[in-house]
Amino acid sequence: MSPLFVIGQLVLGVYFVISGLSHITKAQGLIGYATMKKIPMPAAAVYVSGLMLFLGGFGILIQKYLPISYGMLIAFLVISAFTIHNYWKETDANMKMNSMINFQKNLAIAAALCMLWALQS
Fold this sequence. Notes:
Layout: H1 3-25, H2 27-36, H3 42-62, H4 66-83, H5 93-120
Helix pairs in contact: 1-3, 2-3, 3-4, 4-5
């Protein structure tokens, strides 16, 4: 395996593990944000998404259960792009810009995960 692939795998896995842990350790703030965004069952959504992020990242780190890991992360990224980062609904210019950046980031990372998943086949 290429050293560049290993470095990329480590960075990507750690990114999602940290994001998952952050969802859990900073749940109250995220629950408030999810409530504001009218996400159904916001507390459950925050904890479930945190678990998805953590487990998906951990799967990438240890290179096990990759289809499940990629699938969970892709699902999270696409769903949150359209429900949390729906910039077209924002009225504040700064919120709109930040949401657009996160929307595009989520879809770009989801696309990269789709490519990685395809390489596993």
